[in-house]
Design a protein that fits this description.
The structure is a single chain. With 345 residues, the chain is an alpha/beta fold. The chain has 2 domains: 24-187, Thiolase/Chalcone synthase (Peroxisomal Thiolase, Chain A, domain 1), CATH 3.40.47.10; 195-344, Peroxisomal Thiolase, Chain A, domain 1, CATH 3.40.47.10. The chain has helices at residues 39-43, 50-57, 71-86, 110-118, 134-147, 171-174, 223-227, 237-258, 276-286, 297-300, 307-317, and strands at 23-31, 35-38, 61-64, 95-99, 124-128, 153-161, 179-188, 194-202, 210-211, 234-235, 268-271, 326-333, 337-344. The strands form 4 sheets. A 5-stranded mixed beta sheet has the order 1-7-6-4-5, sandwiched between helices. β4 (95-99), α4 (110-118) and β5 form a beta-alpha-beta unit. The two termini are 32 Å apart. The structure holds acetyl coenzyme *A. Acetyl coenzyme *A (ACO) is lined by residues 48, 52-53, 56-57, 131-132, 171-172, 175, 210, 235, 237-238, 240-241, 244, 274-275, 278, 302, 304, 333-334. Acetyl coenzyme *A (ACO) binds next to α2, α6 and α8.
């Protein structure tokens, strides 16, 4: 008699006795604006070079949204593509979560604008702010609503118009960021694995490493804050780099441990697209091969909350990820925040 084959992995969610409720990503979509800003374009406005940017970051170009194209527009276009793939109408959506640090305005939420633009009249809507980690935070929260039977269909979108908070006079930061959006539709799918686990973390003691000083209740907008360029993001690049590698490594290892998976079993690792050197350092320390790593930051730069959503969409549409494959998403962002997720596609 042959022994029962050992399962490929452990599904930690299945153990929580949610009466067999499991959450799948049934649709994915992304949108990037048409305008391309190359490193050579940036050479004309700040003292930098294509060679410096490429060697330090791996970024070749990024997309910039038009003046009248807002975060909610980018989010809506990505969401429409994800809904189409899932075969879901806007009226079927129960909840819209938009992860962003560049909302259309402080309130109402960008998610409410997206709800109106999609015509998702039944959907509850809110924004969440976890910087570049927002997409993982979003899918974890979306999953909780589905597992608890509160909702059946949740739309999670990471969307950013970072070009509006980048100081275009600061060469330390302006070369790094771009605009775009990525979206997923999450639904209950019995007898499938889908999202196996998600790890979220934060360390508020390191908030100063990456922040936008003015525009909130601590430092409301005034002539002085505008003159001091305090409505642009500020970053300690070196410290951010060090923390990013450590946090992503810890999150990824914890997600793998929970699923009793070895990195060699993962078909595709999709890291936050911030810097090629960060991606390589994390990949190397995890023991991932270059082939396992999905990278598109050369074309888009760092799109913060949109980053892994756009990458997931491209990994799927390019055939790099196929049904049944195991994917590891791993992110890091301001806060500090971090996260990782394992998905059976
Ligand atoms: N072009 C040319 N020279 C530059 C540029 C530029 N665009 N930017 C900085 N330099 C100069 C600096 O002024 C410095 O010059 P100095 O030595 O004369 O003072 C020199 O290059 C070296 O600067 P470093 O900061 O040492 O460069 P480093 O190798 O650390 O790379 C970088 C800088 C790319 C910013 C890197 O630190 C990094 O990627 N950090 C992580 C950033 C990140 O991922 N942020 C996003 C987090 S996610 C989120 O929540 C949004």
């Amino acid at each position: 008699m042959s022994a029962t084959p050992k399962p490929k992995f452990k599904n930690p969610r299945a153990q929580h006795n949610f009466q067999g409720r499991t959450v799948s990503i049934t649709g994915v979509g992304s949108y990037v604006p048409a305008k391309v800003l190359t490193n050579h374009d940036l050479e004309k406005s700040v003292e930098t070079s294509d060679e410096w940017i490429m060697s330090r970051t791996g970024i070749k170009e990024r997309r910039i949204a038009a003046k009248d194209e807002f975060t909610s527009d980018l989010a809506t276009k990505a969401a429409q593509r994800a809904l189409k793939m899932a075969g879901v109408t806007p009226e079927q959506v129960d909840l819209i979560i938009v992860a962003t640090i560049t909302p259309d305005m402080p309130f109402p939420s960008t998610a409410c604008f997206v709800q109106q633009k999609l015509g998702a009249r039944r959907a509850a809507a809110f924004d969440l702010e976890a910087a570049c980690s927002g997409f993982i935070y979003g899918i974890e929260i979306g999953q909780q609503f589905i597992m608890s039977r509160t909702y059946d269909t949740v739309l999670v979108i990471g969307a950013e118009k970072l070009s509006t908070i980048v100081d275009w006079q600061d060469r330390n930061t302006c070369v790094l960021f771009g605009d775009g959006a990525g979206a997923v539709v999450m639904q209950n799918r019995p007898n499938s694995h889908g999202l196996l686990t998600a790890v979220m973390g934060a360390d508020g003691t390191k908030a100063d490493l990456l922040h936008m000083p003015a525009g909130g209740s601590r430092c409301p907008a005034s002539q002085e804050t505008v003159d001091a360029r305090m409505h642009y993001l500020r970053m300690d690049g070196k410290e951010t780099f060090k923390n990013a590698v450590q946090a992503m490594l810890t999150a990824a290892k914890e997600a793998l441990r929970r699923c009793e998976l070895d990195i060699s079993q993962i078909n595709c690792v999709i890291p936050h697209q911030a810097n090629r050197r960060i991606i390589n350092a994390v990949g190397e320390r995890l023991g991932a091969t270059t082939d396992q790593l999905f990278v598109n930051l050369d074309r888009y730069g760092n799109t913060s909350a949109a980053s892994v959503g756009i990458a997931l969409d491209e990994a799927v549409s390019s055939g790099k990820v196929k049904r049944g494959d195991l994917i590891l998403l791993v992110v890091f962002g301001a806060g500090l925040t971090w996260g990782a997720a394992v998905i059976e596609w």
